[in-house]
Write a structure and sequence with these properties.
Helices cover 6% and strands 42% of the residues. Strands 6, 11, 12, 15 and 16 form a 5-stranded mixed beta sheet that branches. It has a 4-stranded antiparallel beta sheet with strand order 10-9-13-14, with no helix packed on it. The protein contains 1 helix and 16 strands. It is mainly β. The protein is elongated and about 85 Å long.
């Protein structure tokens, strides 16, 4: 906004008009609302100042104090910070977040014999397939775990010999490390999983 105001004043001076006007009476421009949303404000009749920022079609004042900061929402669901400048909230500043990673561990025996199970996390091009024989994990201890899809209710599919035996879904967040674990519970194959709590990390954690 500051650049636009200076340009308008410069043009007015060049034309010999008063230099105290900063906008055209009745004109409108975009403005920042709380939470990073965009609203609109109208130039006052005297042309010397902009009116209050109107958000979501309302006349609610969303001005702020210059230098003031507040929490805002980032596109990945995390929280960022935005700062007030020229009585309007600036863009939401979001920190770069590490991707979610995970591995699959298998403890299922087939009639007492070792068997390989396959877990697919995610869908479409973002889907990741992990294979693990009985008593092992898809990622060898000490190696980097696989990057997995993030989002709400990410699909999970556990297969044996190409046949789906368990389907589930869970929320997966950036920055977290996950372990998925297949086992036999009351005669049925089950799939469990969740984010590891500190100080445990995916690359070194193992249930075996």
């Amino acid at each position: 906004m500051r650049t636009l105001i200076l340009s308008a004043a410069f043009l007015a001076a060049a034309c010999g008009a008063p230099t105290d006007k900063v906008c055209t009476p009745g004109g409108t421009q975009a403005c920042q609302c709380a939470g990073g949303k965009q609203g609109a404000q109208t130039c006052n009749l005297d042309g010397k100042s902009w009116g209050q920022c109107s958000c979501d079609g309302s006349n609610t004042t969303t001005g702020c104090t210059n230098g003031q900061s507040q929490t805002c929402s980032c596109t990945d669901g995390s929280s960022g910070t935005q700062t007030c400048a020229n009585s309007a909230w600036g863009a939401c500043a979001c920190a770069t977040t590490a991707p979610a990673v995970g591995k699959f561990c298998n403890s299922v025996l087939n009639n007492g014999a070792q068997t390989t199970m396959t877990l697919t996390v995610g869908s479409g091009a973002a889907a990741v397939q992990m294979d693990a024989p009985t008593g092992f994990c898809s990622t060898i201890t000490g190696n980097t775990c696989a990057q997995i899809q993030t989002g709400s209710q990410v699909p999970l599919s556990l297969k044996y010999n190409g046949n789906v035996i368990v389907q589930a879904s869970m929320n997966v967040l950036n920055g977290n490390e996950y372990v998925f674990y297949s086992a036999v519970d009351a005669g049925s194959v089950t799939l469990k999983g969740g984010a590891l709590a500190q100080p445990y990390i995916c690359s070194t954690w193992t249930p075996f």
